[in-house]
Amino acid sequence: MSLDMLIGLLTKSLGQTLQMVVIAGLIGSLIGLPIGIFLATSGKGELFPAPIANRILGAIVNATRSTPFIILVVAIIPFTRFVTGTSIGTYAAIVPLTIATIPFFARLVEAAIREVDKGLIEAARAMGATPMQIVFKVLLAEARPSITLAITMTLVSLIGYSAMVGAVGGGGLGDLGIRYGYQRFMPEVMLAVVVVLIVLVQIVQSAGDALARRFDKRNRKT
């Protein structure tokens, strides 16, 4: 394979991977954020006490998270077809990627919020803040660095998941590696795909870490 052809294939596949990661990450995070907030604040004696709903939602989240991603992709093929009209290709791959993102990100958000100092919550309550004000002005504000890291971890995981959907015709770098690197015995293509994935992960992780440090009040100059 010529260098120009390899670069062309890598560019196209990278674009598909970025499309899958960005769209699934955005939709999954927007849905997972309120779920995570609810899981962190709906226990007995918390801001929005609903222990039964908390346990039911937590069980659903755990069940979805415990399902291996490749099995999830196959299991929801009918739903994927209903949403996108097909079960293969980049747009079809976004559906299982989004569904896998929601519970993953929700649990990270829950953990980030639970790390917030309980004294801040009590202080806000003593000042007459409503539960919603506490969520937005205390919990989310204080957990912003951790939530930023959660988004970073989610995107990094999505990059790995997007490579997996290549095994079922999902497109992207994973599909390129399987079709050319494995099936056509072109190790240079597989190596190029691995290098691009590593560089992509490093860029996302470095950007996320830098943004989290910027949001961390402990790192701000007084």
TrEMBL record:
Family membership: Belongs to the binding-protein-dependent transport system permease family.
Native source organism of the sequence: Neorhizobium turbinariae
The keyword Transport is annotated on this UniProt entry: yes
Protein name from the UniProt record: ABC transporter permease
The keyword rRNA-binding appears for this protein: no
Record's subcellular location: Cell membrane
A Pfam match: BPD_transp_1
Major subcellular location class: membrane
Membrane topology according to the record: Multi-pass membrane protein
ABC transmembrane type-1 domain boundaries: 14-208
Transmembrane segments: 20-40, 52-76, 88-109, 147-169, 189-212
Recorded superkingdom: Bacteria
Taxonomic placement: Bacteria, Pseudomonadati, Pseudomonadota, Alphaproteobacteria, Hyphomicrobiales
Protein keywords: Cell membrane, Membrane, Transmembrane, Transmembrane helix, Transport
